[in-house]
Amino acid sequence: MNVLQVLGTSAGGVIRHVRAVAVALSAQGDDVRVAGPASSRDLLDETLPLAPVEIGPRPGSGDLAAVRALRATMAGADVVHAHGLRAGAFAVIAARSRRPRPRVVVTLHNLPVGGRAVRTVSAVLERVVARGADVVLGVSGDLVARAARLGARGAERALVPAPALRPVSEGDVAAARASLEVPGPLVLTVARLAPQKGLDTLLDAAAHLARDVPDVTWCVAGDGPLRGELEAEAARRNLPVRMLGARSDVPALLRAADVVVSTAVWEGQPIAVQEALGAGSALVVTDAGGTREVTGDDGAVVVRVGDAAALARETAALLADDGRRAGQGEKAAMRALELPTSDDVVAQLRRVYR
To answer: Known CDD domains for this protein (predicted)?
Structure first.
């Protein structure tokens, strides 16, 4: 098949998913191209052709030009697979006047959030996507349900596996832990420093945890727009929270941590949680979006979104009980074996594309 993958202005996780999908489909013999902002180039595989189509993060004067450019780029495509709400709506609109019309598949990666104006525009785009796409894929069950309520002809859960963790030795793990110079237990969060990750809850949970485990250190691996604000607030409250920034040794950090925690307020199929499962980490997570769909019933300790006290309580309980912590890590590793693979994704997409 001739497949056009379409991106809007996206966080790195969506681009990496598109890259993985495109490379996997190409390996199966499909002719795969990508259309999206020129800024995506650095995060895409160098073998993938990129047609520059500037689909911005919000409505703007260049939207009509973007739709026209996308319509031209669709020439010869059997399938157009767009990722994200705006890219999906643009793809639906651009495909309407193509003859023959390509099949349009849209993957929704995030729940629409923002102020009233943003939500109003998003509601319109959701209807355009639901009623105009041949199939809508959602990275979590709530997104699938929303699309179905809005009239989607086909709606199902997308498969979004984490990339395979590179192997790490015991020496790598020891070096990662030593580099942090922590005096006692190590709690780790791997997240982009953005609002959906619930980082205000993380700070509150760290305050609770420090009362029960005085020598704990809570490290956060990742970067993002909230970093400066979070560092300042942690310092102001004298919390045992350390922002590590982007790290290249996350697989080793996951194994070096005593407990891994996700405080998100919304997730699709969180890659960091999948990676922690694969590392056999003892996990405490919030019941956000599709997180429980990833962890299953036993892969992690699950608490309510925003419940900082419960996050701290469950984390402290794991830190205090070596046997329970090891057992939770074993359950995580077992759950990781049940997660979808790249082959599963290709099988799903080829079925949906046809």
So the answer is: GT4_PimA-like
